Amino acid sequence: MMRAGNPGDAVRLPGGEADLPEAPYLLLTPGPLTTTKTVKASMLRDWCTWDRDYNGLVQSVRERLVELAAPGGAREFTAVLMQGSGTFAVESAVGTFLPREGGKLAVLCNGAYGERIARIAEVLGIELALLRSEETEPADAEALARLLEADPAITHVAAVHCETTTGMLNPVRDIAAAAKRYGRTVIIDAMSSFGGIPLDMRELGIDVLVSSSNKCIQGVPGFGFVIARRGLLAGCRGHARSHALDLFDQWETMERHGGKWRFTSPTHVVRAFDQALQELEAEGGPAARHARYLESHRTLVDGMEALGFLPLLPEALRSPFITTFRYPASDGFDFDEWYLRLKAAGFVIYPGKLSSADTFRIGTIGEVYPEDMRRLTEAVKRSRFWLEAGASEEDVPEHSPVR
Ligand SMILES: *Cc1c(COP(=O)(O)O)cnc(C)c1O
């Protein structure tokens, strides 16, 4: 018998973890990603959405998120969970922090996720100043400083930490410093980096940070979260352009009613996220996770380079979360076909999203290890499109058992 226990109690399957079906492949994608069996197992229990047990779990998740984002900063910072994928959380933040009158948002943009923030602002009717860089160039903090100098109407600055389009790690420290020099509010989409790299909002000068359940914390998809300065959020009543995405209203409800969500909450996902947070801590926190991702990333790049694949970005601009590679030079390269072969071999990779070059991406976040990257590059080596003459169907491995 399982106890209907407290947050943190392990869920036991009747036959142990072995009862969970084997996954047919590893997800080497930037979310949803490969999760541990224990994270998946934690969802095998139904939770009601409103009572003390569940709401206590929500409060504990919120507190731990603040501690991760701004260690020791519980007085100044607060966390709000929002149903939906990460974009819903970004939209709720943009639509709630920008006032209805007199707000203007500068967006630093060097990929699809920066463009998405700009698109959100556009749809919400928020005045916008777009600062674009090439997809292969980091967001430009000096250009931001010049823009802020020239345009005092700008009230908020938004940027993407890891631009998942390329895997570029943007210089958020410099961006936030430039914005702070001009007294502007800083909103960072840290979707694909948060939890996988040590970071302190106070030290960096970030006012609002957005991420989601299914990235480096290694939970499953279903909600996003916003960590923000309390004083700032407290002044946002009535700003939102959407009722369902009103971050202030969601926050007020969670604060007043001890972890209650306004509408049906993704209870299983929150339970899985609690487990994922425990596993992040057990691994040694974001610093240890970062070290693992880095080692996986290096193993991946070394292996792929040895096979002649070129990373899109120079090393200094890469993140350890996801890596973009150029298509191989060979004429007959057919990504879709190759993708299916790698999938049959037990690895799901990610298509490219670049306007300027033919690329594909491989994620190193989730429950994957350097050893998996070695197995992947073995599979790539055996895959037919890489082999020159003499390759045959038999060279493609049938199916590699995955963790
Ligand atoms: C994943 C991601 C998002 C959110 O995407 P969803 O599909 O809505 O979860 C936003 N920004 C970045 C940088 C991301 O990597």
Automatic annotation (TrEMBL):
SUPFAM superfamilies assigned: PLP-dependent transferases
Domain of life: Bacteria
Record has Disulfide bond as a keyword: no
Record domain Aminotransferase class V: where: 111-329
UniProt EC number: 2.6.1.37
Keywords, alphabetical: Aminotransferase, Pyridoxal phosphate, Pyruvate, Transferase
Cofactor needs: pyridoxal 5'-phosphate
GO BP terms in the entry: organic phosphonate catabolic process
One MF term in the entry's GO annotations: 2-aminoethylphosphonate-pyruvate transaminase activity
Keyword Transmembrane helix tagged: no
Catalysis: reaction(s): (2-aminoethyl)phosphonate + pyruvate = phosphonoacetaldehyde + L-alanine
Residues engaged in binding substrate: R361
Modified positions (N6-(pyridoxal phosphate)lysine) in chain numbering: K215
NCBIfam families: PhnW-AepZ, PRK13479.1, transamin_PhnW
Family, per entry: Belongs to the class-V pyridoxal-phosphate-dependent aminotransferase family. PhnW subfamily.
Task performed by this protein: Involved in phosphonate degradation.
Subunit note: Homodimer.
Name the record gives this protein: 2-aminoethylphosphonate--pyruvate transaminase
Gene source species: Paenibacillus mucilaginosus 3016
